[in-house]
Structure formats: C-alpha cells, structure tokens
C-alpha cells in the first residue's frame, strides 16, 4: 500500500491541526501523536520539500545573504497572524518612511545645482536665436531682453525676471563639467558599497557616507566662490558618498522586507528620489529669488542641513536586522524572519561570484545597455531641464522651478503605478516575466523618445504644449522601474545586488557625459540646438529598447540558479508559504530528535533496522 505524503494545512484562523503524513494502519504510532512514516522516508520527503521551498525562496530572495537571522525553535504556527503585523502600521513601514526621506534628501543634494546654476552663472557673450536676441550685460544684470527685428509682438513671450544677479562668468563647457562632476564620484562606490553593506551592515555604510555629504553640501557655496575647479572636486566627493545609497538600501531591505511586501516597501522608499526631484525645483527656484546670502547659496545651506538632520534620525532609528531592533514587536520580528526565509540563516548565497559568467551573459548585457541608454535621457533632462526652460521657453527662475517640478511628480506617480501593473500581469499569467519587463521598458523608452522629438518642434510661444510633452517624456521613465531596472533579480536572484551595482555603475557614465554633450551642443541656447540634443537622446532611447528586446530574459540563468531552471514562479510569499516554512521547521526538529533516539539504539542487540514501506500493494 503506498504512503500518502500529502500535507494538509490547518486553517489560518487556528483549529485542530491535521497530521502532515498518513501512514499505513499496520504501522505502530505513538498514542496521542500523528502517525509518521519511517525516518528514511521522512528525510527524503523533507529534502524534496526543502528543494521546493528553496525554489520559491530563490524567486523572491534577491540579495546576497542573511547572516544575522536567528532561529526561533519555540515559534508555533498559530503565532504568525498577518492581522497582527499589517505592513501599513508596522515597524518596517516606518523604516520605509525613513528610507523615503533619505532618498528625498539624496536627490535634493544631487539636483540642487541644476536649478541653482541658472542664477549662479552669467554668460557675457551675446546669444542669438530665431526668436530674439538676448543681451546679457557684463554688469551682472541678467535676462534683460530685446525683441529681434521684424518679429510679431506676440511671437515669443518676454522674460518676466528683469534683474537677476549672477556671480560667476563660467563658460558653457565649464558648466557642463561642473554638473557632470557629481557622477564621476557617484560611479566609484556602486559595487563596493553593496559589498560593504553586506559585510558590515547598511546602517554604518550609509551613516559614514551621508554625514560627509551633508557637510560638503553646506560648504558648496564657499567652494564655488573659491574656485570653480575646487567646486568641481566638492561635487565629485558628494557623488562619491551618495554612490553607496542604492546598493546599501538593497542590502538593508534584504533583512527587513517580506517578499510579498518587497515591491511596496522598496518601491515606496525609492519613490522618495523622484519626490525629492519634484520638490527641490520649486523650493530652489524660490530660494534663488528670495533666499539669504545672495539667493542661490541658501539652496545648499538648507538642503545640507536637511541631510544632516536625516543622518541623525537614521543613526537613531535604523538597524540592520530585526534582531538588532529593540522597538519591533516580537510577532512582527518572527513574521519577517520566516517570510524572508528562516532556513537561509548562515548561508552566504553568492559568496563566490561567477564574474566570467556574468560578463559573458547576454541577458546581463541586455540590462547593462538598456540601463545606460535609459539613464542618458533621464540624466540629460535632470541636469539640463532648467537651462532648457530658461533659454527656449523663457521662464523666469520662479516659474522655471515650478514647471521643472511637474515631470518628476508624474515620474514619482508612475513608478508606483507601473509596479502594480507589472505585478498584475505576472501574477495573473497574462504575460511572462520576460515579456512584462520588455513591455515596461518599451513604454519607458519609446514613449520618452517620441515626446522629446515632439518637444523639439515646439515654438517658444508654445510653452504649455512644450511643458506637457517634456512632462510626459520624463514621467514615462517611471516604467523603467518595472522593466530592466529590477530584471537583475529575475535572471540571477543570488547576485541581484551585485548585478545592480554593476549596471548602476555603467549607467552613471551618461550622467557624466550628458551635461557636457548638451552644453557643447547648445552654446548659443537656440531652439534648433536644443532640438538636436533631443534627437540624440531619442536615438539612444530607441537603441537601448531594441537591444533589451533582443537580449532581455526573465528566467534564472544556469550560472545563477544551479538546479533551478525556468522562469521565476510567483511574486512572493503569502501566509500559506509562511505556514509551510514553520511546518518544515517543526518536522526537522522531530527528525533530529528521532535520529538521536535511533543513534542511541544502534548499539543495542535488540535494535532493528528501519526500512521504508513498500510503494506497491
């Protein structure tokens, strides 16, 4: 008679626990306990269940390792009650809020110069374009315009700001170098930052990096007034410190985010970056117009102070693991540890990284190229959008800040929406993981390319239409975050953090070169010159999208999954999977006890060898 190995879950709300195994009626079982098959069969079954569980874990466990997870032998199935640990009232949610504001500060410190430099620099040469001549006087009187001859009165709106003083007379090329200096530093610590966070903890890495960034931001006006090249070095050091933030966040959430909540918690955290982009433009524009110490320096003072305050809060409230946190509830701690995978404790997944396989993998290069191409257009607009709105749309500094905000509000919103759409397509089996990622990437690359080309054909009096097109071009980049941006975990779960560091390093290069390229192409600030920069960005977008469609994949690669092949199943753990994990833990404990009893009896002459039951009648 065959052994029925079917497991039966007890109801989520409690109730009588149904035996996990059914054994033949002729086999002796202890009174009062469920009948179980012989030890050898149990061990074989447990091994099969562990492999099944490991497959589910690898589909959602995207990070290097969890060393600090401790065992909870006293945990019972009924103790894990999701109603007691909802994410929106949990300790982990407040950590997501802390991370959210960390990324707000991170991006504010990154892009503050993009709007401040509009007020900082006065170009003393005369610009000419098809609409008007701009006479930028050598007495620092800025934006005093005169209409070009033979043009209708309403052809182009005049600038509203008549007297905005600027301290510096930097060339366009020097501006491009200063704007790009941040990214020289930013690319250095992407991979090392992730590895350091895995070894010593994200809390220390972030604190040691972001405190100096806050101080350097406070000192930026002094550096700019001292020497432009000294200011360039300071901006590079700010980028160096900020380069650890994304990899460290991945290592941090590896220990805190249950897989079925990971998209919400991590997505909410990362969305702070685009929210920071959105709010810094109007705030910086207002400070440039009305701030203290000449206006633009107050941008750096206030943002630097905000960064310092956040670092203090991070040191006080952040911890690398639930075990280190004294304020988390016991039930939430147990829930996090079992949902992430208690059985992963002590395992250093991906300790020996297969570098050769990574750099010879087509799907990896699909991500790398797409990430770099997508970032070119995004970084170009991030650093040069205020300049475009000043030179082509003729916005004053306050309007510039407000209208520069709109694209990043849409960007922030679409990051969340695209994640929900992608999860729905995958979980309902509407599209495969690979096709979902490619669809999201296509929307996030072809869409911006089309709208940038359209914006290039707008006239300077079509301000509203141009703002709408630019807003859509930037906002649709939010779909990247559900496309190639998270594809690392699909193709190589154990090495997702390392792959992200590699791709983000390469994708930082466009941040270095795009400001310089745009500055070199727009020496006179004409509409025609800006149109050419949009064509270049659109072409790069399209190339990256075609490349990703060809090489992008959604299945775990052989060098990353071992015996695990095929597409990743599911989008995370639910209560059922957590219950299964607890059951396996209890079964292993019983196996260990029974094995100990068997070893004690091996020396006895009456000991009998246990044989597996027959699998036939």
Automatic annotation (TrEMBL):
GO terms, biological process: monoatomic anion transport
CDD domains: MFS_SLC17
GO molecular function: symporter activity
Location, primary (coarse class): membrane
GO CC annotation: membrane
Biased composition (Basic and acidic residues): 592-603
Keyword Nucleotidyltransferase: no
TM spans (from-to): 93-110, 205-223, 265-292, 298-317, 358-382, 402-427, 439-458, 464-486, 498-518, 530-550
Record's subcellular location: Membrane
Membrane topology: Multi-pass membrane protein
Domain (Major facilitator superfamily (MFS) profile) ranges: 130-556
Region (Disordered) location: 1-52, 582-617
Sorted UniProt keywords: Membrane, Symport, Transmembrane, Transmembrane helix, Transport
Designated name of the protein: Sialin-like
């Amino acid at each position: 008679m065959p052994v029925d190995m079917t497991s039966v879950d007890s109801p989520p709300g409690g109730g009588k626990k149904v035996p996990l195994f059914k054994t033949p009626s002729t086999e002796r079982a202890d009174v009062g306990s469920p009948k179980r098959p012989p030890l050898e069969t149990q061990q074989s079954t447990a091994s099969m269940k562990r492999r099944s569980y490991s497959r589910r874990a690898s589909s959602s466990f995207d990070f290097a390792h969890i060393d600090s997870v401790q065992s909870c032998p006293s945990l019972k199935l009924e103790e894990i009650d999701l109603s007691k640990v909802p994410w929106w009232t949990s300790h982990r949610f407040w950590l997501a809020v802390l991370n959210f504001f960390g990324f707000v500060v991170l991006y504010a410190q990154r892009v503050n110069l993009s709007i401040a430099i509009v007020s900082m620099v006065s170009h003393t040469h005369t610009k000419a374009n098809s609409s008007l001549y701009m006479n930028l006087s050598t007495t620092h009187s800025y934006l005093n315009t005169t209409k070009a001859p033979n043009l209708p009165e309403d052809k182009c709106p005049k600038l509203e700001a008549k007297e905005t003083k600027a301290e510096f007379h930097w060339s366009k090329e020097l501006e491009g170098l200063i704007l790009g200096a941040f990214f020289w530093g930013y690319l250095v610590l992407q991979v090392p930052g992730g590895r350091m966070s895995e070894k010593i903890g994200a809390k220390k890495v972030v604190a040691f990096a972001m405190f100096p960034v806050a101080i350097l931001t406070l000192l930026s006006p002094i550096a700019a007034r001292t020497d432009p090249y000294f200011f360039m070095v300071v901006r590079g050091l700010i980028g160096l410190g900020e380069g650890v933030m994304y990899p460290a966040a991945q290592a941090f959430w590896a220990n805190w985010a249950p897989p079925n909540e990971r998209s919400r918690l991590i997505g909410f955290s990362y969305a702070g970056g685009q929210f920071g982009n959105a709010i810094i433009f109007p705030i910086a524009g207002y400070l440039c117009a009305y701030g203290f110490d000449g206006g633009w320096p107050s941008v750096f003072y206030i943002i630097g102070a905000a960064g310092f305050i956040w670092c203090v809060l991070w040191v006080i409230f952040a911890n690398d693991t639930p075990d280190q946190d004294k304020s988390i509830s016991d039930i939430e701690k147990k829930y996090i540890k079992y949902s992430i995978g208690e059985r992963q404790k002590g395992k250093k997944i991906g300790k020996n990284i297969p570098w050769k396989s990574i750099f010879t993998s087509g799907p990896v290069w699909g991500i790398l190229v797409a990430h770099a191409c997508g970032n070119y257009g995004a970084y170009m607009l991030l650093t040069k959008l205020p300049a475009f709105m000043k030179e082509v749309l003729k916005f004053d500094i306050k309007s510039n800040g407000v209208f520069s905000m709109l694209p990043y509000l849409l960007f922030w919103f679409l990051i969340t929406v695209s994640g929900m759409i992608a999860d729905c397509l995958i979980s309902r089996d509407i599209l495969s993981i690979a096709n979902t990622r490619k669809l999201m990437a296509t929307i996030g690359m072809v869409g911006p390319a089309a709208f940038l080309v359209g914006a290039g054909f707008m006239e300077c009096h079509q301000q509203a239409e141009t703002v709408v097109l630019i807003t859509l071009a930037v906002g649709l980049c939010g779909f990247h975050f559900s496309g190639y941006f998270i594809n690392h975990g699909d193709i190589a779960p154990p090495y997702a953090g390392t792959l992200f560091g590699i791709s983000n390093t390469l994708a930082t290069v466009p941040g270095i070169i795009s400001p310089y390229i745009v500055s070199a192409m727009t020496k006179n600030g004409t509409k025609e010159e800006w149109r050419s920069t949009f064509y270049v960005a659109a072409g790069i977008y399209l190339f990256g999208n075609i490349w990703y469609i060809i090489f992008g994949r959604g299945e775990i690669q052989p060098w990353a999954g071992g015996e695990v092949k095929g597409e990743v199943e599911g989008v995370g753990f639910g209560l059922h999977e957590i219950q299964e994990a607890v059951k396996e833990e209890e079964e292993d404990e019983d196996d260990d006890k029974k094995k100990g009893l068997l070893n004690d009896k091996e020396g006895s002459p009456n000991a009998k060898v246990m044989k597996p039951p027959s699998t036939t009648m």
